[in-house]
Amino acid sequence: MIEIKSVHKSFGDVTVLEGVDLSVKSGEVVCLIGPSGSGKSTLLRCINGLESYEKGDILISGERVDRHSKSIHELRTKVAMVFQRFNLFPHRTALQNVTEGPIYVKHQNPQVALERAEALLEKVGLAHRMNAYPDELSGGQQQRVAIARALAMDPQAILFDEPTSALDPELVGEVLAVMRKLADEGMTMIVVTHEMGFAQDVADKVCFLHSGTIVEEGPAKKVLSDPQHPRTQDFLRRMLNQGSEVSV
After folding, report:
1. Which residues contact 236 (CB under 8 A, 6 or more apart)?
2. Taking the model in full, what pTM does it have?
3. I need a labelling partner for 119 at 20 to 30 A (CA). Which of 11, 52, 87, 227 fits?
4. Are 204 and 219 in contact (CB under 8 A)?
């Protein structure tokens, strides 16, 4: 469903992605792991068309991603993105945040959008908070609203950019639980994460990035329990020392 072929991306003289190749099948969950600055978030932004790339190709269901093309807005409805910092509209309720895209981007009937939003907020465990504003919600609740907002666009895939990194530790579990449920339902997902336990339990495939390249890729349990590349081994050892739940 998502095909990444020899993608290169630089910011000025700094090379961020250097020949990245990755295929993601429909219904597959792929976790991108690696140290900060390895290019994980930039790769997601290129897939979603938020960043351009200089070389290579990114294809979504056979259509090339080009942030300057007329079709980029339509492509972004197919591949939604959930960010670290929620990005909710502060002056709109949870319900209004979820209906915004379907009504104003997809021109959906407002009543249909409203009913769908209510169902999605119930799905993420927030039916009782749908009329609350973002500053009345915890970080975990805001992130679950952001996930509901992404789902409201009926995407073919969702990109998650470290969705729990801005949360207090006690709130991480409620967001991961929603993501596990989506994975069980067959949602195609690419997840940048430092939650190794989640990656080990939920991902079909794990890719370890270092200095803008994928240096190790394979089935999640294989990569995380028996890494072959020395850099992957070192990274996972550091994560284990920091208390991440993964068997190495």
Report:
1. 196, 224, 227, 246, 248
2. 0.93
3. 87
4. yes
Token duo for residue 89: 């509209």
- Choices 3.40.50.1820, 3.30.1360.120, 3.40.50.2020, 3.40.50.300: CATH for 2-86+156-241: 3.40.50.300
**Residue that the structure tokens 């897939």 belong to:** 47
- Distance from C-alpha of 228 to C-alpha of 217, rounded to nearest angstrom: 10
